[in-house]
Design a protein that fits this description.
alpha/beta, 8-stranded mixed barrel, 5-stranded parallel beta sheet, 14 strands
Length: about 400
């Protein structure tokens, strides 16, 4: 296991525990080992080395310079070494440190609870790669999209609806899709939503953008209906559009044009976006429910007024934000929050939806917690409507793997 790794650095202020780690690593084939008793010794050692260690096994709690401070020093000097962190501290603290280290660009193979043993080392080393670790790179700066540019794009119908599958958590069967706005421009290329949505909301173009998305989503829904594929379609709705007096009339006109049923559509409203102009917002949302449309509280858990909004607004669905889903199987604090949200949804008779599912371990956890609908890259990425039948055919082959055990 360790015989193919050029050199390993073991850092622990306890001589006994450091020697214990060294013995375990040697027993697993390590040939070149370095030791340090604290962060200062590590920094001094690294300055003398021509080639950095290929792996560092690091205790968090050390005098003078603890493990976190050492990692910050390494990041500051662009020294990126894959690391296995050792600690006996509580899970919530370790989870925070895990996120901090990953944000610096360092590769955390695992955070291993003490005492260290051979099995824990084997599990941690499953994530080792001898590829060089690259420091975190900031996204290339992009010129802000102007209101004029976005307006021209909308006028030229450059907006395209992509659809991400949403499936039944027990059976894996396709239940619906989320319609997601994308722009592909001849000169600017792909324009990401985080670049054009803020401009749309600030300029008032969000209303036209939403109507174009509704037009495409309802048109596609009618096509699927005609082919016997009856799906629920989720569409993001900015609360800003609810301030437009005739906005619901426009929604109804598009619905009538395509002859689709209101109960096939769910409007997703981010929980942080409905706090202003509460009276008018509540009235408009109530009207949408009276007309048969579903309402989803999107990104649940990321705002500050979740409970109040759940009490006031006639939601039919609760969508748990991906930040509470991804990695929940290995982080106790996320598991507790996730399970609480799903239990609350069940008690309120809301359909629970988990977004951002990327691993089978998180999928199984959500099944254990009785989540109703799942969405994420594990199931399928956002795609053009024409690609959905191809995805569906391949997805059917995965159903035995996805079904609840």
């Amino acid at each position: 296991m360790f015989d193919k790794i050029d050199s390993i650095l073991v850092v622990d202020d306890s001589t006994v525990q450091r020697q214990h780690a060294v013995s375990l690593i040697q027993a697993l084939g390590a040939k070149s080992l370095h030791e340090a008793g604290n962060g200062q010794e590590v920094l001094a050692l690294l300055t003398k080395m021509d080639v950095l260690p290929a792996l560092m096994i690091l205790d968090l709690e050390m005098p003078d310079m603890d493990g976190v401070e050492l990692l910050q020093h390494l990041q500051k000097h662009a020294i990126h070494i894959p690391v296995i962190i050792l600690s006996s501290r509580e899970a919530s603290l370790l989870s925070s440190i895990d996120a901090m280290v990953k944000n610096t660009g360092m590769r955390v193979l695992a955070i291993v609870p003490k005492p260290l043993n051979e099995e824990k080392l084997r599990q941690a080393m499953k994530f080792y790669s001898d590829k060089p670790v690259q420091p975190a790179q900031k996204k290339a700066a992009q010129m802000p999209l102007t209101e004029k540019e976005l307006g021209k794009m909308l006028k030229e119908k450059a907006l395209v609806a992509y659809f991400q599958p949403k499936v039944d958590m027990k059976t894996g069967m396709l239940k619906g899709v989320e319609a997601l706005a994308r722009i592909q421009h001849d000169k600017l290329g792909f324009v990401s939503p985080d670049r054009f949505i803020p401009v749309a909301e600030k300029s008032g173009l969000i209303h036209e953008l939403t109507l174009q998305m509704l037009e495409q989503a309802m048109s596609q829904c009618a096509i699927w209906n005609a082919r016997g594929l009856v799906l629920k379609v989720a569409i993001n709705l900015s609360a800003l559009s609810l301030d437009i007096p005739d906005f619901i009339d426009k929604i109804m006109a598009i619905q009538a044009k395509h002859g689709v049923q209101a109960d096939q559509f769910v409007f997703e409203i981010t929980e942080s976006s409905v706090v202003s102009n509460v009276g008018n917002t509540l009235a408009m949302l109530a009207r949408l429910r009276l007309k048969g449309f579903g309402l989803s509280i999107d990104d649940y858990g990321t705002g500050f007024s979740s409970m109040q909004q759940l009490a006031m607004i006639p939601f039919t669905e609760l969508k748990v934000d991906r930040s509470f889903v991804d990695g929940a199987h290995e982080k106790q604090n996320l598991r507790v929050i996730l399970q609480s949200a799903l239990e609350m949804a069940q008690r309120l008779s809301l359909v629970s939806v988990a977004e951002g599912i990327e691993t089978m371990a998180d999928w199984r956890l959500l099944q254990d917690f009785n989540c109703v609908v799942g969405q994420g890259f594990l199931i399928g990425k956002p795609m053009k409507a024409n690609d959905l039948p191809v995805w569906l055919k391949e997805h059917h082959r995965r159903l035995p793997e996805l079904r609840a055990l």
